[in-house]
Each structure stands twice: as structure tokens, then as C-alpha cells.
User: What shape does this take?
Amino acid sequence: MPLVDTHVHLNFDVFAPDLDRLAQAWRQVEVVRLIHACVLPREFPAMQAIADRFPELYLAVGLHPLDADQWQSTMAAEMVAMARADERVVAIGETGLDFYKADNGDRQRQVFWSQLTIAHELDLPVIIHCRNAAAETAEMIRAFHQTVGPLRGVMHCWAGTPEETRWFLELGFYISFSGIVTFKNADQIRASAQLVPAHRLLIETDCPFLSPEPKRKERPNQPAFVQHVANCLADLRQIDFADLANLTTHNAWDLFRLPGPMPG
Assistant: This one.
């Protein structure tokens, strides 16, 4: 059954010697599309070079919240230009708020708002990183909806409570689960995964991080392992793996407006 890994970082150095082998592995388990998130805009050319090798790869442009201090006045225009120049760009991000590892809240909010504005301008979904910042992230999205206009997007690598999950569902966002949902002590995340409507559910690896069970000890994580995230969610939701694969693939096609017919 076709799968879409909606969040990868294949440009990281740990993957450089093994990309052909990794591609063979993800193709064997029918990962038919991958969305390559962006941490820093300067890594975009390296991401494009990987996408040149693997046509199932699509791209995002963004600045990670933990790198918000690197934001410059010219960066918004640069991101817009990058996105418009490459038809493989299907999202803005990853962006968002992270108050777990950083305390530069004002700077993060400024940079997040700027990237929401880019996503709105280009009519692209936004890939949101949110850690220890769910209430403020939701409030910023609400404020954006009210003062600027609509947004679509995904809460990536979601680890929030059921209550927090409902906030983002009410805002129209998709919810994407990574290998964390398979971890032994992830009861709260599994509860969130059970309440997400079928038409808003996505899967990802966030590789090279967060290898899922039963591959927890295998590092780095890789796109082929997204099948284990899908299997866990199918079990949680008491549906067949094939149905889980189909609905999450369909959702990825819809959110990212992927070109061409969906494999089936």
C-alpha cells in the first residue's frame, strides 16, 4: 500500500553515504512521496540536489524556531523567491515555536508570523514545529486567521495532549504522528492519535530522529520506517493497515496538493 512520509531531513550529513540504499528501502515498502522539511534556507540547494536524484521527493522552505536568531530582513523575500522558482516546493516550514530548548520567545514569534505570512501569500501549507508552546501557537494561528486570512497546514511530529490536539483540529490543521507514537510511555500521544478524524491524519518519520518501535535501536531513522508508524496507528484506530495507508496518503495529496494521480 502506498505511503507518504510527510517530514524528512535527508540532507543531514549522516545520510550522505547511504541515500541510494535508503531510497531502495523506502521504495520496497511503497513510500511513494516524501516531503523534505527545511531547517535553514541556506540548505535549500542541497535539498534540491537530493530531489534531483529522487523524483518522489518534494520540498519545503523555512526557518526552524530554534534558529530564529538567524532571521534577517531579507530572508522572507528569499524564501518567496525559492518557493516560486521550484515547482517541487509544496510547503513553508518547518517553522513554529519551541519554548523547551530556547527562551527567545519574542524573536520566535516574529519569525513564525513572518513565515505564516509567506505561506498565506503563496497559498502553501505551513509545517509547524510546536514544543512546550501549544497554547501560544494556537493563539497566533487564530490571530492570523482573524487579521490576515486563512491558513492550512500540519502540526508535525505531534506530541500534544488530546485537548491541545482539538485546538488545532478546530483551526483546520492536519495532525502528523512520528515514531514517538510507538514509544512505550506515549499514552497521551496515542490518545491524541485516536481522536484525530480520518481526513486530518498524517504520518512521518522526522528522520534521522525518532526511530519507531520495533526499530528503536536502529539509528539513524529512515523513511522506510514510516511503515511502523502507520502500523501503530492502524492498530490504535482498529482499522486495516491498507486503510490507514490509503487515508494518510490521500490526506498528504490533499494538503500538499501533490501533482499527478495518487498511486493506489
Notes: The two ends are 7 Å apart (CA to CA). DSSP finds nine helices and eight strands in the chain. The chain has a mean pLDDT of 97. The beta strands are 3-8, 31-36, 57-61, 89-98, 126-131, 153-155, 174-177, 201-203.
